[in-house]
Specification:
The complex is a heterotrimer of chains A (383), B (276) and C (361).
Chain A (H helix, E strand, L loop, with lengths): L6 E4 L3 H12 L5 E4 L15 E2 L6 H15 L1 H5 L12 E5 L2 H16 L4 E4 L1 H7 L10 E5 L3 E2 L2 H14 L3 E3 L4 E7 L2 E7 L2 E4 L2 E4 L5 H8 L6 E10 L9 E4 L4 E5 L5 E5 L14 H14 L7 E12 L6 E4 L6 E5 L5 H17 L14 H4 L11
Parallel strand pairs in A: 1-2, 1-12, 2-8, 4-14, 12-19
Antiparallel strand pairs in A: 3-7, 4-6, 5-6, 9-10, 10-11, 13-16, 13-17, 14-15, 15-16, 18-19
Chain B lengths: L5 H6 L4 H4 L6 H4 L4 E4 L9 H5 L27 H5 L5 E5 L6 E7 L11 E5 L5 E11 L8 E7 L8 E3 L22 E3 L4 E2 H9 L5 H8 L11 H13 L18 E2 H5 L1 H8 L1
Antiparallel strand pairs in B: 1-2, 2-3, 3-6, 4-5, 4-7, 5-6, 8-9
Chain C lengths: L1 E8 L3 H12 L4 E4 L28 H10 L8 E4 L2 E6 L5 E5 L2 E12 L3 E3 L12 E3 H10 L7 E5 L3 H12 L3 E7 L8 H9 L4 E3 L1 E7 L6 E6 L12 E4 L2 E4 L3 E3 L2 H5 L4 E4 L4 E4 L12 E3 L9 H18 L7 H15 L6 H10 L4
Parallel strand pairs in C: 1-2, 1-6, 2-3, 6-19, 8-15, 9-10, 9-15, 10-11
Antiparallel strand pairs in C: 4-5, 5-6, 7-16, 12-13, 13-14, 17-18
Helix pairs in contact in C: 1-2, 1-7, 3-4, 4-5, 7-8
Classes of the chains: A alpha/beta (383), B alpha+beta (276), C alpha/beta (361).
């Protein structure tokens, strides 16, 4: 393994790969990505891989719009032939409460003002888009036809191949064990395969980003919570859009393969990095799903698994250089949306590392906001 | 494995060597029926020795011992032949006057022949020898194997080991047609329709584990969760890396172990209420 | 949620023997089995068993299933057997989930014995997805449970005991067997089985395998070929057979999905059929209170599965505080039986494998 690097990126998930790709594209040489397992083995390969622009805050709308537009042109941008299976079947978001109906109206106004072509729908109109939805269970809905979902494994491969072809070195099965300091200055990283000196280190370790920050002795106010998913046997295509409900507590999509993938949130999920599954999830998820979409009840669940949401107090990411340790960067705390934000993560982090101005001002996503009382308005459009 | 077993392990056929020591001497042969035990492999099995009322099978020290007949005690009563799970015991009688003797063969096919019926005597490899007459039939049942006695020329008693009732045309081994084979890539994962070339291609591109290959190809993501494909993928990985299989992780196994419908899962809570 | 003292997963020879030994000393036992009737693979086994009287030697498998099941009545402990009951999940909170006759059930057992048996290995050859390619288990189920012939002329792949026994059963059912192939250089199954097959005129070709199956939407022909010492095809050795069934009997793997879920320590031991759980001489895995018995603990014969089941049953009962004066002696005797069953020269690989797995040999 090489002994030096200009930038060492910790984490071979979609975020780390996107940062590597963007840096390499901007001309940075000698970039290494260090992954303790195989690429995409963390939250990247475990997530629902949905892409949506329908958010409740301006910043999230802008960030996700950047990403969506990136994925629309990914084939040309990556210069490879890997089909990332970006299916733009839209997102249909159901409102379960009167408060949500009002919120959704405001969201659509905000989204439209930012150039996101979402529409507000009655339950009947939503039923036309998704005939198997029991429309008596929703009070209204919004829909954006450009939203969609990706194949996370192929997307990971597309990013890694593109990064490699630009000269990025990717080391799988290489675990970072320590951050090397020279006094209070950053020196590099120690891995189980040897040390790498690097003046710049990026913490893109997802669910494990706090462990990495601890190694560097810097504060990263995030925690990781288990989230579970299950998948059914495949059937004929019957649902184009991803369906999502916040108070209804569900997201569910039919992937091109034909199976339905779905997940939900649960405050009682553990926060100790475990990746086990629970039987309670199977029950509750099935109950939620069959209540909203009774026809899907006949489908058999073939597998369940779990991944980690890396959470912040305001459910928004942290894009920042550690104030205590110049050269050490955080791209963390994605709160369940790291996959869809990956393109913009790569863009803003690469610009920040190179000291250049990004297309979107993300200075408010600094790490100090949690101390200064500068929390952002909490995004309500999350599952 | 004893060296002299090699031939029989390849062919499934006893040789003259194997049979040496399994037959009585000429004078004992004339005294009455006796058992020929064609059991050449040490396996854990002892019904013959346990069943013999005359202690005519040399006692076992270990259940894996081979049975040897003490011909001075064997009466040819056939109790051992009726319990032998391997159908490896034959009762030969060449004590009578004249050219003909009898051989009693264990028989587990239907229909059972009748006394007086003509059947085709066959050798150890199933080849036809000659027509023979059934002289006795002991029906099976209650754990006992049916035995059929054939009248056979004395010189053929150690050759006949089977017979067939219906003279089936012996199945032709080779096909009549000719065909120019097109060796398409075999299926590895039936659930997801992933073939061997795809697996080999991913391995060639650097995919190093069952889980990586599963993510990228879907092999193992189906309802059976890799019960059939996982082993083949492990074999391919090990072969490519030139290391033994135990160097690899088995990959993840996730619940549910077999598919279950959401309707049933969703009612799980109600079951709890009933049972509490 | 139902709390129970002892859950046994699988009502095959191992599970039924475990239940007997546990209930004998007063443990209430719940057995779950995914099939419609108890017995596991025994219900398809029309041949007589080897072994000794203690393992029902000379009795046919189907009859053993009945014996093992019937002796569970009127024991000090109550034995409940639920069929059509598939265990699907082992979770970290100790809960075992199952689909039982159309309901999602959750059990919290104090001890559990996993006796799930094995699954069949498959073979990658061209045309292996054509109708007419069967696993040996399916052929046995069709013929011996349902009385249906799989076809008229069979090519058997694998000369282990299963390949030999199923070939014999096919012949008994009036189905022709064109040949038995095995890639190994010798017959893996018992020679007495092989000799029975040879007497019926069926060739056994060692160092041979199937390369291709073809036909009009179903198996009609097979092309087989010889293998060299490196397992490569010998050019020019191809032979074509007319068959409508290819039966694959290339070995079994422990069906250990539930044990993986339960996060027990596993090890790949080729001699035992693949990944097997590590265990102690009580048949307990690395997870306290979780026991194993039978093929899931390593592929062997039904005789050793029954003895392992007895050991697991005695041990689990002991853990739950149930034992008799004889329990200790009984376990010792079982261990001795296992030692004997594995003492032969043909069991050398099993002995090596079991030593690696941590079992008493």
């Amino acid at each position: 393994m090489q002994k030096t690097a200009d930038v060492a990126i910790i984490g071979g998930g979609i975020s780390g790969l996107s940062i590597a790709f963007n840096l390499a594209q901007a001309g940075v040489k000698n970039i290494v990505v260090l992954e303790k397992n195989f690429l995409g083995n963390g939250a990247t390969g475990r997530c629902g891989a949905g892409i949506r622009m329908q958010w409740g805050t301006e910043l999230n709308c802008l960030l996700s719009k950047y990403s969506c537009e990136f994925f629309e042109q990914a084939q040309e941008l990556f210069h490879n032939n890997i089909d990332i299976e970006f299916e733009q079947g839209g997102y249909l978001i159901g409102a379960g409460t009167d408060e949500e109906v009002e919120q959704f109206k405001r969201n659509v106004k905000l989204q439209n003002d930012l150039g996101i072509e979402s529409v507000f729908l009655s339950p009947e109109e939503a039923g036309e888009i998704m005939p198997h939805l029991d429309i008596t269970k929703i009070k209204a809905a919004t829909f954006c036809h450009r939203d969609g979902h990706l194949n996370p494994f192929r997307t990971t491969e597309a990013y890694s191949e593109a990064a490699r072809s630009l000269g990025v070195s990717i080391y799988e099965y290489t675990e970072v064990q320590d951050i090397l300091l020279d006094g209070d200055k950053l020196k590099g990283v120690r891995t189980d395969k040897g040390d790498i000196s690097a003046p710049l280190v990026v913490n893109a370790a997802g669910g494990y980003s706090k462990l990495i920050a601890d190694m560097a002795g810097v504060d990263l106010p995030v925690y990781s919570q288990r989230h579970q998913i299950m998948v059914t046997e495949p059937v004929e295509a019957m649902q184009d859009p991803m369906f999502m409900g916040f108070s209804l507590n569900i997201y569910i999509q039919q992937v091109p393969h034909g199976s339905f993938i779905m997940g939900r949130s649960d405050d009682s999920e553990p926060t100790d990095l475990r990746l086990t599954s629970s039987w309670q999830f199977l029950e509750k998820m099935s109950e939620t799903c069959t209540t909203l979409m009774p026809r899907l009840g006949q489908l058999k669940v073939v597998r369940q698994w779990a991944g980690l949401y890396n959470m912040t107090a305001d459910a928004q990411p942290i894009y920042d250089e550690a104030p205590e340790l110049p050269g050490f960067y955080h791209a963390a705390g994605f709160s369940g949306h790291g996959f869809m934000l990956a393109p913009v993560t790569g863009h803003v982090m690469s610009r920040k590392i190179m000291g250049e101005k990004a297309d979107i001002d993300v200075s408010c996503l600094n790490v100090s906001r949690f101390k200064d009382g500068g929390l952002l308005p909490t995004e309500s459009s999350v599952v | 494995m004893k060296k002299d077993l090699l031939h029989i392990k390849r062919e499934g056929l006893a040789t003259a060597d194997d049979l040496r020591g399994r037959l009585p001497d000429e004078s004992t042969k004339k005294e009455g029926p006796y058992a020929v035990i064609e059991c050449f492999e040490e396996i854990p099995c002892n019904p013959c020795v346990v069943s013999c009322r005359f202690d005519a099978i040399l006692p076992f020290e270990d259940i894996n011992d081979l049975p040897y007949v003490d011909f001075s005690k064997c009466t040819g009563c056939a109790v051992c032949a009726r319990v032998c799970p391997g159908l490896a015991i034959f009762i030969v009688d060449e004590s009578m006057q004249g050219e003909m003797g009898t051989i009693m063969l264990p028989y587990e096919y239907l229909p059972l022949p009748e006394k007086g019926e003509q059947v085709m005597a066959r050798s150890r490899d199933g080849s036809e020898l000659f027509p023979a007459t059934v002289v006795r039939v002991l029906k099976g049942g209650k754990g006992k194997t049916a035995l059929v006695s054939l009248e056979v020329p004395k010189e053929s008693l150690q050759e006949v080991r089977a017979f067939s009732v219906i003279e089936d045309e012996s199945p032709a081994f080779h096909s009549s047609e000719t065909y120019d084979p097109d060796y398409e890539s075999p299926v590895v994962c039936r659930c997801e329709g992933v073939d061997l070339n795809e697996i080999r291609d991913l391995i060639a591109r650097g995919y190093k584990s069952v889980d990586e290959i599963k993510h990228r190809s879907r092999a193992g993501m189906g309802p059976c969760q890799g019960r059939s494909c996982r082993q083949i993928i492990l074999n391919e990985l090990a072969r490519d890396a030139g290391v033994s299989l135990d160097e690899f992780e088995g990959g993840s196994f996730r619940p549910p172990a077999s598919p279950i419908s959401m309707d049933i899962l969703a009612k799980g809570g109600e079951e709890d209420a009933e049972n509490s | 949620m139902i709390s129970i003292p002892l859950l046994i997963v699988g009502a095959g020879p191992a599970g039924l023997c475990a239940a007997y030994r546990a209930a004998e000393v007063g443990v209430d036992v719940l057995i779950l089995d995914r099939a419609q009737k108890p017995g596991g693979q025994l219900v398809k086994q029309t041949h007589k068993f080897f072994g000794s009287e203690k393992q029902f030697a000379s009795t046919r498998g189907i009859e053993i299933a009945d014996i093992l099941f019937k002796r569970l009545e009127d024991l000090p402990g109550r034995v409940e057997l639920l069929t059509d009951a598939t265990v699907i999940g082992f979770y970290e909170d100790g809960v075992v989930t199952a689909e039982v006759q159309g309901k999602f059930m959750k059990y919290r057992p104090e001890a559990c014995i996993v006796a799930t048996g094995a699954s069949e290995k498959t073979l990658a050859f061209t045309g292996n997805d054509l109708p007419g390619v069967y696993g040996a288990g399916a052929v046995q189920t069709l013929m011996n449970e349902y009385g249906v012939r799989p076809g008229n002329r069979v090519l058997m792949i694998g000369a282990g005991n299963i390949g030999l026994i199923v070939s014999y059963q096919l012949l008994q059912a009036g189905v022709q067997v064109a040949a038995i192939l095995d890639a190994a250089d010798e017959i893996g199954g018992y020679l007495v089985h092989a000799s029975k097959i040879r007497r019926a005129g069926v060739p056994i070709l060692t160092r041979h395998t199937v390369g291709l199956a073809y036909g009009d939407e179903k198996v009609e022909h097979a092309i087989i070929h010889a293998l060299d010492d490196e397992w490569n095809k010998i050019p020019g050795s191809e032979q074509q057979l007319d068959v409508d069934v290819i039966c694959v009997a290339v070995g079994l793997s422990p069906l250990a999905d539930l044990l993986w879920q339960a996060a027990v320590d596993m090890k790949y031991i080729g001699a035992l059929g693949g990944y097997v759980p590590l265990r102690n001489s009580d048949m307990m895995t690395s997870v306290a209170g979780l026991y194993i018995a039978g093929d899931v603990a390593g592929i062997e014969e039904a005789s050793s599965a029954m003895v392992e089941g007895e050991i697991a049953g005695i041990s689990a009962a002991g853990r739950l505080g149930f034992s008799s004066e004889e329990s200790h002696l009984l376990k010792k005797d079982c261990l001795q039986q296992l030692r004997q069953l594995r003492a032969g020269p043909g069991s050398e690989k099993i002995r090596t494998g079991m030593a690696l797995a941590g079992a008493y040999v």
